[in-house]
Design a protein that fits this description.
548 residues; mainly alpha; two-stranded parallel ribbon; two-stranded antiparallel ribbon; 16 helices; globular; disordered N terminus; disordered C terminus
């Protein structure tokens, strides 16, 4: 499978990558020398050197501070950025010849689909509200229990499906507030009901969509990226712009394969084997031990696979995010070159039942082979290109041992010095921060792509001067969104990393609240958790923050 050339491995610097495509952040770097099944199978298999085990109550691999919800928030963001159903593990692929069926923008198209006109089956008859199952507090489903949502991947597991439900409920609550006159649009004006635009959407729908998108983008810049990449890297990219993610046309971004199949797969080791969902459902396994186990139903559920969610499994979000200081959330697993056993033999429904041999049911193996199919460069070459510390073979082996690897890595010293980029960045994260966030190379790649994509979107909040000012505006006790460390130097209150909320106790009407859901019933917006939110701002702007 490696005997022929692909134009993707010789993409010149600065090539214009068409919108909606994948590409390369480091087009001049050669692909890592492929080693195929011979190394991917033993490295990624259950009971192999990347297996961290799956013992209920085992906290030995927990991240120092990263809340468990960030695993699934990260998955949600990934589904908003890219989707490639055409590539295969079995052949080389040119990233510049692969279509990204998800717009490379953080615009919530995984929630909105293509809008009420093009994807009407996810909306009510009026085209303003997203369909939800209010009876079960679940996603709307067809008779075969398939979710009616903008991206079917957001029903891959129950936690992300409930996160999808929260965003959809948030939109619907904003619509209700706009129509009742309690809220105004982003410009402070009333949203007129059922006034059609040239695209056919109601102006109320468009106003609600804009509010949710802007606060979602604000949350990514202020909460998600600092938690995953560290404040220093994020501040540098915001201040100086990306140095390595450089589309020739900044209005036509692409998704680099170094990001999509390596750096941004940092979330896989953070998946716990068991989760506490609510007081009645503690220690629920993410996947069943039997890959052929029957799928969940509304009344029967023993694991967290996607599918119908009955009322008894409504998620208490305080168990996943820092919303209640009296009840800290469960932690994500740390970012390290190890995955829990449940991910090394994926169940039917996550992978097709006919996948064979068994090693190909391992998420780790699939990641390693996918990086070879897309001819991703080695971790050491990328680190050198970024100008950060380069980990050598002996260091990678030592990191694996310190993380708790069950045995010696199957790669030779020469192969470790030409290491899979994904594995390398996981090891770097554990080495640099104990696995609480990405390391130097991984953080740079992730921060530059997210900021670059948001800034390439001419409709993002960072391109609207008034809204940029409004969202960033500080009152005493508030966080300036672009300079967290500066805020600390000036004595302002800064939310704890991973809080998904900040201190609004002074009632700044311009201060945004993070739109991570509503109450689980999907009804009125509320302010809960680690601070109070401006009621005046909520009423004027239609903002909804995390709750539940």
């Amino acid at each position: 499978m490696h005997e022929f050339q692909s134009r993707g491995s010789y993409v010149p610097a600065g090539i214009l990558v068409p919108e909606g495509r994948f590409g390369r952040m480091f087009p001049k770097l050669d692909a890592r020398i492929a080693t195929g099944d011979a190394t991917a199978f033993p490295l990624g298999q259950a009971m192999g050197p990347m297996d961290s085990g799956a013992t209920p109550g085992d906290e030995s691999h927990d991240a120092p501070s990263l809340p468990a919800g960030f695993t699934f928030l990260g998955q949600f963001l990934d589904h908003d950025l890219d989707f490639d159903p055409t590539s295969s593990l079995e052949r080389q692929a040119d990233p510049n010849g692969i279509t990204n069926f998800r717009t490379p923008a953080l615009d919530l198209d995984n929630v909105y689909g293509a809008g009420p006109m093009a994807t009407p089956y996810i909306y009510d008859s009026g085209g303003e509200l997203l369909l939800l199952d209010s009876t079960n507090n679940d996603l709307a489903r067809n008779p075969q229990y398939k979710a009616l949502i903008g991206d079917p991947r957001n029903d891959e597991n129950m936690i992300i499906s409930q996160l999808e439900f929260a965003f959809m409920s948030c939109h619907n609550s904003i619509v209700a507030g706009l129509k009742s006159g309690i809220y105004s649009d982003a410009s402070g004006n009333p949203a007129t009901t059922n006034t059609d635009t040239t695209g056919g959407e109601s102006t109320v729908f468009l106003a609600a969509q804009q509010l949710l998108r802007w606060h979602y983008q604000w949350m990514i810049i202020n909460e998600f990226l600092p938690a995953i990449c560290g404040e220093e890297v994020v501040e540098d990219v915001l201040k100086n712009g990306p140095s390595f993610y450089q589309p020739s046309n900044r209005q036509q971004p692409y998704i680099p394969v170094e990001f999509s199949v390596a750096a941004y797969r940092f979330g896989h080791p953070t998946v716990r084997a068991f989760y506490d969902i609510n007081a009645a459902n503690l220690g629920v396994p993410i996947f069943p031990t039997n890959p052929a186990a029957a799928s969940p139903t509304y009344t029967t559920r023993t694991d967290l696979r996607g599918g119908p969610v009955g009322k008894s499994f409504n998620i208490e979000w305080k168990r996943f995010f820092n919303l209640d200081s009296a009840h800290p959330p469960q932690k994500a697993k740390r970012i390290e070159p190890l995955l829990n056993t449940r991910l090394l033999d994926l169940p039917n429904g996550v992978v097709p039942p006919n996948v064979a041999p068994v090693q190909r049911r391992s998420l780790a193996t699939r990641n390693l082979l996918r990086s070879e199919a897309l001819m991703v460069p080695s971790g050491q070459d990328v680190a050198r290109a970024l100008g950060v510390n380069v980990l050598k073979a002996a260091e990678l082996q030592s990191i694996a041992t310190n993380a708790g690897s069950k045995g010696s890595l199957v790669l030779t010293p020469a192969q470790l010095d030409d290491c899979y980029l994904w594995y390398y960045l996981l090891a770097e994260a554990f080495n640099d921060s104990g696995g609480d966030r990405l390391g130097a190379a991984g953080a740079r790649i992730v921060a530059e792509v997210f900021v670059g994509v948001i800034d390439a979107d001419g409709m993002s909040y960072r391109h609207v001067p008034e809204m940029e000012t409004n969202l960033a505006r500080r009152a005493a006790g508030h966080l300036h969104h672009r300079r967290p460390s500066e805020a600390r130097r000036r004595g302002m209150s800064v939310p704890a990393r991973g809080s998904l909320t900040d201190d609004r106790s002074r009632g700044d009407r311009m201060a945004p609240a993070v739109p991570l859901g509503l109450r689980p019933d999907g009804h009125r917006p509320v302010a809960e958790g680690g601070g109070t939110t401006s009621v005046r701002w909520l009423r004027r702007r239609g903002t909804v923050i995390a709750g539940g």
